[in-house]
Amino acid sequence: MPEVAIEEMSPGPRPVEMLEMNRLAVIGRFARERPARLRRVEDIAAAGLPEGRVAAGLRAFFELGGREAVYLPSLTLAPVELPEGMGLVAAPEADGDWTLLAPLAEAARAAGAMLLLDAPWAATSGAKLQAWRQAGGADWKDAAAFAPWMLAADGGAVPPSMVAAGVVARMERRLGVWKAPSGVQATADPYRPAVELDERAQSLTSPLGVNLFRSFPGRGHLLWGGRTLSSDVEWRYLNVRRTVRMVERSLTQALRWAAFEADGELLCASARMQADAFLHQLFRQGAFQGQTPQQAYFLRCERTSVAEDDRVSGRLILEMGLALTRPGEFLFWRLTLPAAALD
Length: 343
Hints:
Elements: E1 24-28, E2 36-38, H1 42-46, H2 53-64, E3 69-73, E4 88-90, H3 98-111, E5 114-118, H4 126-136, E6 143-147, E7 150-151, E8 157-158, H5 160-175, E9 192-193, H6 199-205, E10 210-216, E11 220-223, H7 238-254, H8 265-284, H9 293-296, E12 297-300, H10 308-313, E13 315-322, E14 331-338
Parallel strand pairs: 1-3, 1-4, 4-5, 5-6, 6-10
Antiparallel strand pairs: 2-3, 7-8, 7-9, 10-11, 12-13, 13-14
């Protein structure tokens, strides 16, 4: 019988899965023994959630295009840790209270998610929204504010953050997380603004990062803004921040294998090849600006550029830049991954 030779072949870098960023964590005061996972409107009643802001908001989320939400009971509206995989966070009962919102923003940041918050119900004009925003003074790149409150077809009040969550989820699934969730495609119908805000209100609120729902004859009720609460021009836009978070989370999960490999040029080259294939895929899908990959992004993972303490401590660093605004202007940052430490 001939001898059988078995040779183990390296599969090479596997394709990176683009993770979804539209799973919604909803934090409310209604007590439950454990979190409730919801995938459709019928699950709201099945979870025992009473009628109110949370239930109305979840209904809007699913009706507008959301597919998955988790309800987290918290008397203080401030969970220590969010479930893994959440991309959006909302707390409809916070009603614009900056004291309650601050720990929520920190929880969202730590989880790589985006906090969607509501302006107060009473903030019914551009001037009132401006005063509320300035009083808070928040400078958060992982949070976005929405106003005014919305009305369902039956006239019931609906938190604008939850309507926005549905719009964001729908547009991400149809057009990609890199598409700005605002404009003529960001329809909120059949939900409508409780008060009509005009161009003057828009001029007062947009520079402060408050995103308005507005009604336009012949076009319907639209989300007419997609900014974060950050003063940093690099993180001003919701789609930019969420795209970067998606890239970070997708690459971090796909490159977990690096923690078990010997440090060196081969590890760096393999990680770079895997990440480059992912970024090229995003470029072909229209995630970046630029006519060529070179105009759209760059990626580096070179041992000569890594500090000695990073190598000894077992940290693999990918340096990358993405043209998320226009060709030639890259948003630059480092993604640090665990790798096998040197002895």
